[in-house]
Each structure stands twice: as structure tokens, then as C-alpha cells.
Specification:
By secondary structure, the protein is an alpha/beta fold. It contains eight helices and twelve strands. About 25% of the residues are buried.
């Protein structure tokens, strides 16, 4: 079965029986599904649940599905949006794509397995888009590639060790003491001093900033009373 873990689907359908049927089928295929009956209920859902994919009926009570689709596309440009409706006219399809910004326009009735395949395809696109925003750390040649620039940053051995530790830490955050411990020599009990760690972080920040947009936030933040937090997404590359 293709990978659907962590893909969150919001289904907006006012027909209760159809909503329950579709939600049950998607759940059985590994999606996390939240089913609601109108745009207002979806807004409440989005206030507490990050969502990857949307399946929208057009004939909804209150705000129309087309208006909702357009609003979602503006606020969540990378989300996957599928319209699922009984409207089959060409002008409705064109409106769904051109005005609403939907990724795909599906007509009822639809085979449940077809909907699963459509959402999986949209999910793969989303995951790829997420990865495209990640930095890539090559452990073998100690280089870090920014998604914002083509050049690769050369890292020192200590800088690489520092980044690897933060990448793998919970919330990408570690205490200063734990970071200093990383640099204890095997044949010596001498630890890196807090001052030396601060200098290492300052140099690494400067290096990272050179490959970030000017308006970007600090890539490594100081956490008061704790240590440091890595604030850019980094994956291990090849």
C-alpha cells in the first residue's frame, strides 16, 4: 500500500450518509480524516488541526464550495484540493479550476478507490513540496545545501556535529551542557567551554545567514536557560 501516514484529509460534505461512507473508506486506507458539513465547521477544524488535503462538495449550506475552495487556495497555497460534486457542466468544471483553484474536479458518483488514488497522488506532491523547502546535509563531504541558493556551504567537523545533534533532538533543541559534551575528546576529560560553544554558534549562524533570504528569521535560536534550537528544516542528503 502506498504511504498515506501523516496525510490529514478534511472532507466537507453536507450529505451525512455520503460523508460517513467516504470518511470510512479513506480511514480504512490509512488517511487521517476529519469530516464536516459546512465551511464554518471547516474553519473551526483548521483552527486546531493542520490539514494537507481537502475534499469539497460545491453545494454546501452557507458559504459555497467554490468560494471555500478559492479561500483555501489563497490561505493554503500548497494544500491539495479536490472538488467532489454532482455538477457535471463544463462551466462548473472551469469555475472549479480557474476561479476556485482546485487541483482536480471529480463528479459524483465516484468509485471510492479512485478518490483514494487521487488523494495519494496529491499527497505525494505535497510531501515533495515540503521536502523542496528543506536544507540538505551531506555527512560524507560535510556540506549543507540551502533550498534558497545553489551553492553548498562547507562545514567544519564541529559544525557538522552540532547540526546533527540538533536535527535529531526533540524539538530540535538541546541544552548547552549536552552540546559541549559532544566535543569531549576520547583521550581527555576536557569539555568545550560555554564561551567556545557560543563562538561556534556565531560562526555557524553567519554561514547559514549567507544562504538565507535577508528577511528570514534566525536559523539557530538561543533558548534562554536551556541552550540552542535549530529553526530551519534540515534533512540528511547524499
Amino acid at each position: 500500500m502506498p504511504h498515506t501516514k501523516n496525510l490529514v484529509v478534511a472532507l466537507v460534505e453536507d450529505d451525512r450518509l455520503l460523508r460517513e461512507e467516504i470518511a470510512g473508506h479513506l480511514l480504512a486506507h490509512g488517511f487521517e480524516v476529519h469530516a464536516v458539513n459546512c465551511a464554518t465547521a471547516l474553519d473551526d477544524l483548521l483552527a486546531r488541526t493542520p490539514t494537507d488535503l481537502f475534499v469539497l462538495d460545491l453545494n454546501l449550506p452557507g458559504e459555497s464550495g467554490l468560494s471555500l475552495c478559492k479561500r483555501l487556495r489563497q490561505t493554503l497555497p500548497h494544500a491539495g484540493i479536490a472538488i467532489l460534486t454532482a455538477r457535471v457542466a463544463l462551466n462548473d468544471r472551469l469555475a472549479g479550476y480557474e476561479m476556485g483553484g482546485a487541483d482536480i474536479y471529480l463528479t459524483k458518483p465516484i468509485a471510492p478507490d479512485e478518490l483514494v488514488m487521487v488523494l495519494r497522488s496529491l499527497g505525494r506532491r505535497i510531501k515533495k513540496a515540503d521536502t523542496d523547502h528543506d536544507w540538505s546535509l551531506n555527512l560524507r563531504d560535510r556540506t549543507l545545501k540551502s533550498p534558497h541558493a545553489q551553492a553548498k556551504l562547507r562545514l567544519t567537523s564541529r559544525e557538522k556535529t552540532f547540526l546533527v545533534a540538533l536535527i535529531q533532538a526533540k524539538d530540535n533543541t538541546l541544552e548547552s551542557g549536552a552540546l559541549c559534551d559532544l566535543y569531549t575528546s576520547e583521550d581527555s576529560d576536557d569539555l568545550m567551554s560555554k564561551h567556545a560553544l557560543e563562538e561556534l554558534v556565531a560562526r555557524l549562524r553567519k554561514k547559514l545567514r549567507s544562504a538565507l533570504p535577508q528577511e528570514a528569521e534566525q536559523p539557530i535560536k538561543s533558548v534562554w536557560g536551556v541552550g540552542y534550537q535549530l529553526c530551519i528544516p534540515v534533512e540528511f542528503g547524499h
